[in-house]
Design brief:
660 residues, alpha+beta, Gyrase A, domain 2, 4 domains, eleven-stranded mixed sheet, 19% strand, globular
Length: 660
C-alpha cells in the first residue's frame, strides 16, 4: 500500500513539475513558453479511374474476409543510394514480422507484389496533382523524378513506395499568418491494415497503389489551433478542386511536433483534423516531461558510458502469480525475466501524458519491436501493484538493486524476451538524451503510443524502372486555366453572405460554395436560407437517412429551379428535400404528391383566419394572449407551406388577432 501511495504521489508531483495543464486551460503564452512548433503532412487520395502505376481500378474496396488469395512476405532492409541503412528499416527487421496480404483479383495485379515493372505513371493523376500544386502556389518542377521510399512495416508488399515531387515552396493563408509549403508529391497509397498481433500482421491490398498527393508544410504553426486551422484549410482546398476522393480513409494527416530542447516527433495517421489540437498539446508536454527525466537521470547517473541493465530469469514459484497475464504466461511455459534499471527509481512513474507514465514508453516499444502484446510488463512503480512489497523486495535482492533503482518484470517466448531486453536498454539509454525521434500512433483521447523509429533520408533511393518525365509549360498553363477560385475567396464569400458560421465546415468540405452561388444568383435566393438548407438540413439528412440511389448534389440546383418555375414558396424545400434525398430519381411533381401538397390561393388561406379565430374563441381554455395566434398558425401551416411565405401568414394572423 505504501508503494502505491508513493507512486501515485510521484505521478502527481511530476505532472505538476512538468506544468501540465489541460488544453482548455492553455493559451498562446503556454505554447510560446514551450517553444511549440508544428508542421503537417496531409495525404489525400485523387479521384481517378485507375491506380498510379498499373491498370487496376481505383476505388474498389474489399469487404471484411473477402479475398481470392493470400501472399506472405518477410521484409528485409536495403541500402540507400548513399550506402546507408535506414534506422526504421533496421528496427522493422528486429520484429521478425510475418506479413500476410489478402488479395482480391479485381483490385490487385502482379505489379503490386513487384513481379511486374511499373506501367507509365497515370497521366490523369499527374494532371490533377499539378492542378492542386498550382492551387497551393508551389513552383512546378520541370522534370518529375520517381524515387523509392522504403516501408518495411509491410504496408507495401514491394517494401518501398514510389513517390515523386510535383511542386515546391508554396503557401496557404490562415486567419493571422501565412503557412509555407515545403513540397507536394504524388505517390501510391499503401495497404489497409486488418490486424497486427504478435509476429503476424495482415493487410488487404484494395487501397494499394491508388494515387494520392502528400502536402508537407514547414513547422510554421505555433499553437495547436493553428495546426488544426492549417489542416482544415488544406482539406477545403483539395476538395474545392473536385479532383479528390472523400470518405473514410481518403485523407489522412501526419502531424510533426517539437518544443525547445526537444526534437521532431511525428504523430502518424491522425484520422480527424479535430483530433490535432489535443494530440499536439499532449505531445508538447510529453516532450517537456522527457526533458525533465533527462535532467534527473544525468544528475543522478554520473557514469553514463558504464550504465546498463542487469537481468535474471525467474521461476514462477517465486511469485504468488495472482495476476492473470502472469498466470497465462506460466500455463504457456513462457520465459519470465526480471530487470534492474540503475538510477531509474521514480522515473518509471514519471508523468508523460494524461494517464501515462515513462513505463508506458517502454511498454509501447515492447509491443512494436519485441512483439509482446500488452500488458507486457509489470514494474516496481505501478499505481496499482500486482506484486506485493515482499515480492519486489526479493526481486531487488536477487538483482542486487540499489535504492535509486527501478525493476521490471517481462515474459514471453525466449527470443522475444531477448529482443525485449535489448529494446528496454536502448530506450532507457535514449532517456539520458531527452526526446527520441520517433513516429507515434494517435488515439481518440489525445494520447499517443510508439509506432516506429522516425524514418530519415537513408530510406530513399532512385527508381530505376521509371524514366524522368518532363512537365512542359503548356501542361502547366492548361491546368492553370482549370483552377477553381482560391479557397480563401470561398470563405470570404460565405462571410459576405452572412452564412451561419456552423455551416462553413460542411459547405467547404463538400465543395458546395459554387453551387450556392449559382442558386443565389439564378433564383435570387436568400444566401442565409440556402446556406442553412445545405449546411443544416442536408447535413442532417446525410447523417440519418440512406438514399435508394446515388444522390447527386446537382439535384439541389434542379430543385430550386423547379420551385422557381412553379412559383412555390421556398419554405416547402425543407419538406421536399428529405424525399428527394432518399429517392434521388423521383420527379419533383411526385415529390409534391408524396408530401401531400395542394396548390391553394393565398386569398383562400388568409380568408380562413377569421373563422378559425371564432372557433378558437369558443374552444379556448387558456389565458395566454398568444395562444390563439399559435393555434391558427398550426391549423393553416400545412396548407400555406409552398403556397405563401409563412412569415406573411403570421402577419395576417397577428393582424386579425389585434382586432377586438
Amino acid at each position: 500500500m505504501v508503494q502505491t501511495l508513493n507512486a501515485r504521489a510521484n505521478y502527481d508531483r511530476t505532472r505538476r513539475l512538468v506544468g501540465y495543464v489541460p488544453r482548455r486551460e492553455a493559451d498562446p503564452h503556454t505554447y510560446a513558453d514551450l517553444g511549440f512548433k508544428c508542421g503537417l503532412e496531409i495525404h489525400q487520395q485523387l479521384m481517378t479511374a485507375k491506380k498510379l502505376f498499373c491498370n487496376c481500378p481505383a476505388g474498389l474496396y474489399q469487404q471484411d474476409g473477402e479475398f481470392d488469395a493470400e501472399v506472405i512476405r518477410h521484409m528485409r532492409p536495403t541500402l540507400s543510394e548513399m550506402g546507408e541503412y535506414d534506422g526504421t528499416a533496421l528496427m522493422e527487421r528486429k520484429t521478425r514480422k510475418n506479413i500476410i496480404y489478402r488479395i482480391k483479383s479485381e483490385t490487385a495485379c502482379t505489379y503490386d507484389i513487384d513481379d511486374t515493372p511499373p506501367f507509365k505513371i497515370n497521366q490523369e493523376a499527374l494532371g490533377k496533382a499539378i492542378e492542386i500544386a498550382l492551387m497551393l502556389r508551389t513552383n512546378i518542377v520541370g522534370e518529375l523524378h520517381v524515387t523509392r521510399k522504403q516501408y518495411l512495416d509491410g504496408s507495401i508488399p514491394t517494401g518501398f513506395q514510389r513517390t515523386a515531387i510535383v511542386g515546391i515552396e508554396g503557401d496557404i493563408p490562415l486567419s493571422n499568418k501565412t503557412v509555407r509549403i515545403i513540397q507536394i508529391s504524388i505517390e501510391e497509397d499503401s495497404c489497409r491494415e486488418v490486424s497486427d498481433v504478435g509476429h503476424w500482421r495482415v493487410y488487404t491490398t484494395d487501397r494499394l497503389g491508388m494515387p494520392l498527393i502528400e502536402t508537407v508544410t514547414y513547422p510554421d504553426m505555433l499553437t495547436p489551433d493553428e495546426a488544426a486551422e492549417a489542416g482544415q484549410y488544406l482539406r477545403y482546398l483539395t476538395r474545392s478542386s473536385g479532383k479528390v476522393r472523400t470518405g473514410m480513409g481518403a485523407a489522412r494527416q501526419d502531424v510533426n511536433v517539437s518544443i525547445t530542447g526537444g526534437t521532431r516527433v511525428e504523430i502518424k495517421g491522425v484520422a480527424h483534423i479535430r483530433w490535432i489540437p489535443e494530440l499536439t498539446h499532449n505531445e508538447a508536454f510529453r516532450q517537456k516531461a522527457l526533458l525533465a527525466i533527462r535532467d534527473r537521470l544525468n544528475d543522478l547517473v554520473k557514469d553514463r558510458a558504464g550504465w546498463g541493465i542487469t537481468s535474471r530469469d525467474l521461476e514462477y514459484n517465486h511469485l504468488t502469480v495472482a495476476y492473470e497475464p502472469l498466470r497465462l504466461a506460466r500455463a504457456r511455459h513462457m520465459r519470465l525475466t526480471a530487470m534492474n534499471l540503475p538510477g531509474f527509481g521514480s522515473v518509471l512513474s514519471f508523468f508523460t501524458q494524461p494517464g501515462q507514465m515513462f513505463a508506458d514508453e517502454l511498454s509501447g516499444r515492447l509491443k512494436v519491436i519485441a512483439c509482446l502484446e500488452r500488458p507486457n510488463l509489470i514494474h516496481s512503480e505501478q499505481l496499482d501493484p500486482v506484486l506485493s512489497g515482499d515480492e519486489w523486495g526479493s526481486i531487488r535482492e536477487l538483482l542486487a538493486a540499489g535504492e535509486a533503482d527501478a525493476q521490471l518484470l517481462i515474459w514471453g517466448d525466449s527470443a522475444d524476451v531477448d529482443t525485449a531486453l535489448e529494446t528496454i536498454e536502448e530506450r532507457c539509454r535514449m532517456a539520458f538524451e531527452g526526446v527520441p525521434n520517433e513516429t507515434r500512433k494517435s488515439f481518440i483521447d489525445g494520447t499517443t503510443i510508439f509506432e516506429r523509429v522516425l524514418p530519415g533520408p537513408d530510406r530513399m533511393y532512385p527508381d530505376t524502372d521509371t524514366a524522368p518525365i518532363a512537365i512542359v509549360e503548356e501542361i502547366i498553363e492548361e491546368r492553370r486555366r482549370e483552377l477553381p477560385p482560391d479557397i480563401s475567396e470561398d470563405i470570404s464569400r460565405l462571410q459576405g453572405w452572412r452564412a451561419p458560421v456552423d455551416t462553413f465546415d460542411y459547405l467547404l468540405k463538400r465543395n458546395l460554395v459554387r453551387l450556392m452561388q449559382r442558386i443565389i444568383e439564378e433564383y435570387d435566393e436568400d444566401p442565409v436560407f440556402v446556406a442553412s438548407l445545405l449546411g443544416h438540413t442536408l447535413k442532417h439528412l446525410e447523417g440519418t437517412l440512406t438514399p435508394s440511389a446515388e444522390f447527386n448534389l446537382d439535384r439541389l440546383g434542379e430543385l430550386f429551379g423547379f420551385i422557381a418555375e412553379r412559383k412555390l414558396d421556398k419554405a416547402i424545400l425543407r419538406e421536399m428535400l428529405p424525399v428527394v434525398y432518399v429517392h434521388p430519381e423521383m420527379d419533383f411533381e411526385s415529390v409534391l404528391t408524396t408530401i401531400r401538397f395542394k396548390a391553394v390561393a393565398r386569398e383562400t388561406i388568409v380568408g380562413q383566419i377569421p373563422e378559425l379565430r371564432r372557433m378558437f374563441d369558443k374552444l379556448k381554455h387558456s389565458n395566454d394572449p398568444g395562444a390563439g395566434g399559435r393555434w391558427i398558425m398550426g391549423e393553416l401551416r400545412a396548407m400555406a407551406l409552398g403556397n405563401m411565405p409563412l412569415v406573411e401568414l403570421h402577419t395576417a394572423v397577428e393582424k386579425e388577432m389585434a382586432h377586438d
